[in-house]
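A further point concerns the way the authors explain their paired sequence and structure data. Showing the layout once, in full, would remove most of the difficulty. For illustration, here is how one protein appears when written out as sequence plus structure tokens:
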Amino acid sequence: FTYQVHQPDLFKILYQKFKGDQWMLYHGLDLLGFKRFPKPVEDVSRNATRILFNSKATKNLFTELGFSSAAPQDVIYPFLDEDHLRALKLYSVDQLESSIGVDLKNTIVFTSICRLVKRKGIHFAIDIVETLIKDKHFNIQYFIGGAGPEMQFLKDKVERIGLSAHIHFLGYVDDLLKYSLLNKSKVFLMPNYDDGGGDFEGFGISFLEAGYYGNHVIAGNHGGAIEAMEALDDFDLVDVHNKHDLKRIENKLAKLLEGYAN
């Protein structure tokens, strides 16, 4: 019911129809949506038997925004269904190349698969890839899966810097294509950040998916992404507002890519 909180009348109907325990799960972004009009969240939280959060960061946000409840509160992290992932028959390299229309031989694959909104930091990811290609001379093919309001801005940016042959927008990708691409990828980029309080990374299951397939994960040091990294071994957190930290990531990736090339 996380996003249905934006339909408070629906909750009134549910309360009347169903008896017994009523649990509420918050992801973070839903809470920000009611920062100016908190009553529906207050009503839902007051009636809840138990409140769940997908990260400590989301639980803290609940308190910071002035919400409260007498109901017990717990953090339940999202997790991967690894049995399902192991059972998937992923695309071969040839099938993957045919699906995305790009030759992947003798290249290093980078990926970002997410909703294309500003706070995901994909514009910063493009800057990192640009440096690695133009200054460090690595042969990278970078695939951006997903859609959202930032897509046209990002496409224009890629065209402006002249990297359309290396940075590709896939739009919506189904699970089979997503996991096949992650399986081929070496680096997953989603350097999320605070864009001024209008958006929030509650956790980031995509980080776990990328890590499962052996990617080096680049995440932002904001929100629940920090907690998601606790489940991974191969990652870096970056402060995208700090140019020195961005340079550190570029240098770190350059060293990693030298190892892949060898």
Observations:
- The mean pLDDT is 90.
- The beta strands are 23-26, 50-53, 73-75, 108-113, 140-145, 167-171, 187-190, 216-220, 235-238.
- The radius of gyration is 20 Å.
- The first helix runs from residue 8 to 17.
